[in-house]
Amino acid sequence: MNRRYSSKVPTSDRGTLVSAPLPVTFAGGSEGEWRVESIAAVRGEALPDASHLAVVEGPDGIPATAAWVLRGVSSNERYVTRAEREQLVAKQSALGRAEATRAALIPITKSDVWWELSQDERREIFEERSRHIATGLEYLPAVARRLHHGRDLGEPFDFLTWFEYAPEDAAGFEELVGRLRETDEWRYVAREVDIRLAR
Amino acid sequence: MNRRYSSKVPTSDRGTLVSAPLPVTFAGGSEGEWRVESIAAVRGEALPDASHLAVVEGPDGIPATAAWVLRGVSSNERYVTRAEREQLVAKQSALGRAEATRAALIPITKSDVWWELSQDERREIFEERSRHIATGLEYLPAVARRLHHGRDLGEPFDFLTWFEYAPEDAAGFEELVGRLRETDEWRYVAREVDIRLAR
After folding, report:
1. Containing H/E element for A147?
2. Is A124 near chain B, with CB under 8 Å?
């Protein structure tokens, strides 16, 4: 993992918060450490086919040729409370575990209606009604994750959601994704692509 | 005002929410619609001198030469509740009033400690303790404002805060800024530059 943007702040195996936002580029094409197993349009337009995915942290090393390039930045928490963060940090795994040879990149864009809701309304939908955090906690530490934001960058997707897990935890991951897609929060998803990977 | 990024959504004189994030560039140099009256370092490093400021909405038309260029993007609300938004929208003015011939650009960066706080902790400091919104409401509609985010863009400032007012409301604006700088929230400000403008 390119530690250039995180080298100044210690990171534990638990994925302690790193101060500076981390720009990450996901490039689908003929090169990359991940093999693309499938690309499915869950809602809205799909992405072009690609055999491999390169995941590049920081500004350098982005493949010169790619079928598609998506950019996001890890950022500060938008909804999680202190109590919830403590639960998450106690259970979560960091990216890059040797056994985590399966991954999913799920780019998501939410509707204009979502973005025009006020902070308390979005939080209420996200957790009080949809239990996004509570549900996700059930699948830690098996599923490691990182969220990247793209809306403020003018990207086609608001969020680039990344997950890693061992092959034996794939069924659990499917269950998690299925449950989230049934929530009130997901009624505000305008576009979603589901990319599955292996290495 | 360049409406290119807001033309698809009606905007009222009250500054109704526009859906897409708006990228804005502030370029200090020898050209621009605003004359620079003063540049002061409130905390941390200042910015180089400039006689004029150009404010450019969208990606085109940024001056080729400038002493400094700061970029931000208007984005979704991070702390404001529905009830607070209703109060704000009922009182606030839009940018571009003919009488608003004075302005302030106040770039701000907050500390790593701030960004590592959870959402509920930041909200509690921002409003329950510091009454940022409640205080600001007292100065509407005299002071029009727009907030631009820069941290996720890798910019040197987390926020580019912009204010416009008539000359007779300048004293009120000073009072507002003075009150905010005394709050708990401002203990987390690591760098702040205060640029005053006229047209």
Report:
1. strand A144-149
2. no
